[in-house]
User: What shape does this take?
Amino acid sequence: MQKLNVELDRLYLAGAEGGTRSIALAFKKLPGDGEAGHWERLCSLANTLQSELGLPAPAVSISGSGSYGLWISLAKPIAPPQVLEFTELLYRVYCPEQAGAGANATPELPPQMNQVSGKWSAFIHPGMGASFAGDEGLEVQPPEAGQVALLEGLESITPSQFGQALDRLRKAAGASAPQAAATAPTPARAAPEGLLLEDATLEDIVNYLHSKNIEPTFRFLK
Assistant: This one.
């Protein structure tokens, strides 16, 4: 297991200086998920990490006990409070339905045998993830060579990349905060094209006249 330990150390293990070099997100089935809803959430978030936050591709794992894991590697150790903030914002902005299920469900670093199920956790190729839905574990210990091959091409997130991604998450969370929406002015509804008076509300008529730079006045007829 020497080669595998080298890769795990390169990607995820912190030294004596403290902090953490891994962010692990667990994806369990939620009510209404069907067979592979948790896998689809993982794929969506994995793609978001790369397309929206500009981060390297994460590793993917099966837990041996009914869930998937997403593994983010940090080039330098980061203090736990920052990691917790990053994780919470990631869920809040991009995967809110996952927040309650994943916040306190950190997966263990594969490969390991789950003591309850008797199955092994393992890193897997993302293209094979859906095939494990409903049985997220291996009956036997995964071969070392296969695990190494899945990890050796992965990159770690640099401190500058992490800082930029955290800033983006903070801004996105602020923009979507309920209080911001509550205090924001309500935009005027656009006047519908081809307005028919028989279908229009009073608001429709007022908006239509405003769009023509006409200020309406109303008088009541007896």
Q: What stands out?
A: The two ends are 92 Å apart (CA to CA). Confidence is low (pLDDT under 50) at residues 179-200, 216-222.
